[in-house]
Structure formats: C-alpha cells, structure tokens
Amino acid sequence: MPDTIHPNGLEDQVDEFEIAVPSPPELMRRRAKSHRGFIIGGSVVLFFLAVAVFAPVLAPYGPYDQELTKRLIPPVWDAAKGTWDHPFGTDALGRDYLTRLMYGAQISLMIGFFAAAVSAIVGSTIGMIGGYFGGRVDNFIMYLINVKLALPGLLVALSLVSVFGGSILALILILSFLFWDRYAVVTRSVTQQIRVNDYITAAQALGTSRTRIIIGEVLPNVMNQIIVIASLEMAVAIIVEAALSFLGLGVQPPTPSWGLLLSEGRSYMFFMPYLINFPGLAIFFLVISINMMGDGIRDITAPEGRN
Fold first, then answer.
1. CA-CA to 176 of 20 to 30 Å: which in 151, 157, 161, 216?
2. At the fourth CATH level, which superfamily is domain 24-301?
3. pTM for the complete prediction?
4. Which residues share a beta bridge with 90?
5. What is the pLDDT of residue 303?
6. Looking at per-residue confidence, does 46 or 20 come out higher?
7. Which of 253, 247, 237 is nearest to 286 (CA)?
8. How confident is residue 305, by pLDDT bands cut at 50, 70 and 90?
C-alpha cells in the first residue's frame, strides 16, 4: 500500500520549489542587458551626446576660426599634406573640420530632440483628448489628423522655412508641426482601449475630474508608445533638418550644421571627398543608432511576440 502524503507535507514540498518571479522593472533591465541592438544604438547615441555636450572642451579650435593659409588641408592619414594639427582636415575657409563636426552634433541633436519633444506634447495631448471624449470631439480631432496626413510633409517644410527663415527655433517649430499627427494617431487608438477599463470607470465614479483622469490614468499607460515614437521621430527630424540645410533653407552659415557642411563640401566632392564623407557618415550613424535604440525600447518594454 503506497504511503500517504499529509497535506501539510505536500505544501512544504511545493514551497521548496517556488521560484521568485522578477518584477517588471527587473525584467526590463534583464532584456536591456541582452538586447544587442539597444546596447549598440544606445552606446553610439551616448557617444554623440557626449561629443555635443563637451564640444567646447574637446574641440581643438573654435567653430568659426578661419585661417585661409590652411584651407583644404586633407585629413591626417594623407601622407603628403595631412597633419595632426587638423586630424580631419580643414574646409575651404581654413576652419578645423573636426571642430565643425563636433559643434554640428549640438545642432542636430538639439533640433531633433526638441522637435520630437514638442510634437510629442502637442500630438499626444490631441490624441488622448480625442480618444477619451469620443463623439464630436473625436470627429474633429480625426478631421485635423486627416488634413495633416493629406499634406506633403517635405513640401510644407520647404514652404514654411522659406517664409519664416531657417533659425534653429523656426526649424524646431516647423518640424514639430510636421510630426504631431503620428503621436495623435497612436495615442488616440490606445486611449480608446484604456477608457473602457475598470480603473477608469472607478475614477469616474469617484468624481475625479477628466483632466486628472487623462493625466493620472491615461498618460502613464500611453507613455511607452510616446517614447518609442519620439525616438524614431527624432531620427527623422535630424534627416529633414540636414536636407533643408543642404538645400540652403535650413540652418544658415556660419553655423556648423551637418547638412550645411554637406552643402558647402559638394563643390569639392571629387577632389576633397572627406568634406562630404565625414558629415554624411555622422548623420548615417546617428540616425541608424537612434532607430536601433527605439526598436530596442519597443522590444524591452513590450516584448510579446518579438524575437
């Protein structure tokens, strides 16, 4: 006859094999440590951010210092004319190219970050209002979104920049106008799903104001989507700013924008290719790193069904 197991003894055996379930923040930390794209992308973005912040300390010269006797000096690896005094060479006005690239990182990151932040605030607010209130309010919000989606983005940017000028503030506001609808579409859809949950109904039953519900209950639940969109839109803003500056409608000389460096170097691209290679590679690596970091944030915070 088999031995009988006392219920308390069985519970003790089960307790011995209990596995502690990690908290959500701990799970995200573990995923972040093992996500190669997030680590690589984040590391490169941090590198560019450090270069931009510490450019006044790291740069060997001033961004506007000219010396015509040293114009178009090739990079240091040019055996004939390269010199360590100017590791990345000089431009057509004798300005140190490494210094210009460092200060150009400030312009690109500043415009990209603030354009993504302003458009996130505007678009997310509009989207949450439309998704929460519904009805005529939502219909009006959808009308605004549809009108914005029907506009050709780059042509609108070219028109607005030609009217309001290419100052940094004007570029930030214009790029914010171009990207707010993407936040609005996503936050509206997520808010429509959230507003039917029990905790929203409970807050309404307690007499909580609509503003407090949107800020305290809805916003924390859509913040993940906002962060992911912002990381991707920041990369797009950097590309658009570079394109506008390349066409002469963005940041104006002598400000060291990467797009402007491309524009200034195109006249020498067949003789001094480094004048377009360096800013082009800088834009490429920064943009692709931001996209990798954004994909990593998406996978880390919402990894269901993703490899």
1. 216
2. MetI-like (1.10.3720.10)
3. 0.84
4. 96
5. 55
6. 46
7. 237
8. very low
Please determine, for residue 20, whether its predicted confidence score (pLDDT) is greater than 70. no
Q: Are 305 and 36 in contact (CB under 8 A)?
A: no
Q: What is the DSSP letter of 69?
A: G
CB atoms under 10 Å from CB of 130, counted, come to 25
What confidence tens digit (pLDDT) does each residue in 57-73 have? Answer: 999 899 998 988 889 89
**291 vs 66: CA distance, rounded Å:** 36
Task: Show me where the domains of the chain are located.
Answer: 24-301
CB contact set of 22 (below 8 Å; sequence gap of 6+): 30
Q: Are 111 and 88 within 8 A, CB to CB?
A: no
The 8-class DSSP code of residue 166 comes to: S
Please state the rounded mean pLDDT for residues 130-151.
Answer: 91
In the block, tokens 């519970």 appear at 11
Amino acid at the residue 27: L
Q: Is 34 left (phi over 0), alpha (psi -120 to 50) or beta?
A: alpha
- Local confidence band at 191 (pLDDT 50, 70, 90 cut-offs): very high
CA neighbor of 60 nearest in space, from 91, 97, 93, 92: 97
